[in-house]
Each structure stands twice: as C-alpha cells, then as structure tokens.
Write a structure and sequence with these properties.
By secondary structure, this protein is of the alpha/beta class. The protein has helices at about 1-10, 35, 55-65, 70-95, 100-105, 155-165; strands spanning about 10-15, 30, 65-70, 130-135, 170-175, 190-195.
C-alpha cells in the first residue's frame, strides 16, 4: 500500500490544458503505446528485478474502472513484444560467442517495439480521449542516446500520434522513462492537452 502511494506521489503533471485531467471514472479511453502493456517499471542491469507480478498501465486503468476501447491493439502488442524479446535473446546468444554473457547483454541493448499502426476503426470506438504511453528503457548498460527511439520520437511513434490526432478529440501523453525525452514535438500536436511523467513507477505503478 505504501509503495503504491509513493508511486502516485512521484508522478508529475507537466501539462493540463482545458482541465482535461482528472478523468471521470468509467470514461472510455483508447490506450496505445509500448508502455501501456509493457510498462517500464525500473532500470536495466542491476536496476532490474524479475518480479512475480507487475501492474501495467493497462491493468491499472482497467482496475480503476476505465473502459479501454483498444483491447485488440493491446493484445496484438503483447504478441509483438514477445517475438521481439525472443529475437533479442537470440541476438545476445550470437554475440556471446566472443564475450561473456554480461558483456553480451550490455552490447545488445533492447528497444521496445512501437507496435502496429493505429487502426482506422479507432475513429468509431466510442471514445473521444486517447492515452499514448511513450516508454524508454534506461539504466546500467543502456546509456541514453541522441537518436530516434531514445531521446527523440521514432518515425513509427510519430505516425501513431498522427493517427491518434485524426481519431480522437483529446490526447493524454504518459512519459514512462528513466530519463529525459525531447518534448519539442508537443508543438506539432495541439490535441495533446495533458502530459504526465510517470517515470519508472515500479511494480505497483
């Protein structure tokens, strides 16, 4: 209970135009982004923990009584993630021939896949608000980089925000990252009315 309270107190509201937040319980929401399903809970290397259970943003919103309209996309992302993790493990094994497993792990950083494009049917899902979770993995052996998929948005993420802007009246951006992210793109997306930095919120985030 205390850890959950600490996580909530650590969230930082960076933007809230038109008092979009807080949302009423039961609000229909389109939920997208890598961190919606695979929320980055902590750092890499010695900052990571193989826990028995962890509450994702998707689970947390569902538990709180919100109606998630993008369940098909979220289910598809889970499959995309599992395949990307398996491919990543295989790449470590191929690197491992020339170094020990720890150094192979550090030499082969993992990046969360963006997921499938936002479907056109999102326009008709009954929700006028979308949440996009922008996630970045950071920690020991995973230094931040001045490039796409790290400090900057990737092309796939931009395409998703373009589609969300076409499908929804309001967008909430959740930053799920262990370090700074360039937010200059907010000027290009006026429908992003609220931004919340949830950091790496741990198991109960």
């Amino acid at each position: 209970k205390l850890v959950r309270e600490a996580a909530a107190e650590s969230f930082v509201l960076l933007k809230n135009e038109n008092n979009l937040l807080p949302l009423e319980k039961g609000t229909k929401l389109g939920l997208y982004g890598a961190g919606a399903v695979k929320t980055v809970k902590g750092g890499t290397g010695s900052g990571d923990v193989n826990e028995r259970d962890s509450v994702s943003i998707y689970q947390g919103l569902s538990n709180a009584g919100f109606e998630i309209t993008s369940k098909d996309w979220l289910s598809g992302y889970q499959k995309t993630y599992e395949k990307s993790r398996e491919d990543w493990k295989q790449s470590i094994k191929s690197v491992k021939e020339n170094m020990n497993v720890v150094m192979a792990y550090f030499a082969t950083p993992y990046h969360l896949p963006a997921g499938d494009p936002i479907p056109d049917c999102a326009k008709e899902d009954g929700a006028d608000t979308a949440i996009f979770v922008l996630s970045r993995i950071a920690g020991e052996g995973t230094d931040r980089r001045d490039e796409e998929l790290d400090y900057y948005l990737s092309k796939d993420e931009r395409a998703m925000l373009d589609q969300l802007s076409a499908c929804y009246k309001h967008i909430i951006l959740l930053l799920n990252a262990g370090g700074i992210v360039d937010l200059a793109f907010l000027e290009e997306y006026p429908k992003i009315e609220s931004v919340v930095n949830v950091l790496q919120p741990g198991q109960e985030g």
